[in-house]
Amino acid sequence: MARDRKLSADERILWGKVARSTRPMPGKAGALTELDAFLAEAEAAAEREQEKQTPAAPMPLQPTLPSAAKPSAGVHHPLEKPVKRKIAKGRLALEARIDLHGLVQSEAHSILLDFLIRAHERGMRHVLVITGKGSSMGSEGALKRAVPLWFSKPEFRYLISSYEPAAQHHGGEGALYIRLSRRHGERP
Which PROSITE patterns match (predicted)? Predict the structure, then answer.
């Protein structure tokens, strides 16, 4: 494994959470200040991104359910069974993976979008997104519910061709296999 590689933003956020859960060794507390500054900057960026997405005037909260009567461009297209079977058995490689559980929705949304954009730009076709199953009893988990809903939004729609819950050894109900759409002009 290369030691010269820099950590990506999401890896640094994850490492920051791990580092905060430990006590610094005597005389080593200074290294955490750089990490704290980066995490504060990342959290501020996530808050700014969320502020851009929230309307200026508060809207009355009404549950929005997908209507079967109106056609939607964000209809879920499942992976074909042979493709899912090949991925589950390892005959078709997952080219990248991202673990979102433990993140709040605003952080997870921006990190997931960035991850999928980069994977799409690199021409990747199959990736694994780990959302987690939810930890409280009777709860499905916020990200487990939210991520499939995000996929029907315009910023995700052009990136994703299909998705399906992962096989048990890849995370089962707490993870999704994602097939990314082909880049414009790319031939099969």
Answer: SMR (PS50828)
- Quick one: 44 and 93 in the same domain? no
For 6-62, write each residue's pLDDT tens digit. Answer: 777 777 777 777 766 776 666 555 555 555 666 667 666 666 666 666 555 555 555
For helices 142-150 and 105-121, the axis angle rounded to 10 degrees is 40
List the strands of the sheet with 126-130, edge to edge.
96-99, 126-130, 175-180, 160-165
For the stretch 109-154, pLDDT in tens is: 999 999 999 999 999 999 999 998 876 666 668 888 899 999 889 8
Domain count, the chain: 2
DSSP letter, residue 163 = E
> Beta partners for 97?
128
Q: Does 62 map to a domain?
A: no
Query: 176 exposed, middle or buried (CB, 10 Å; 0-12, 13-18, 19+)?
Result: buried
Paired tokens of 179: 């097939």
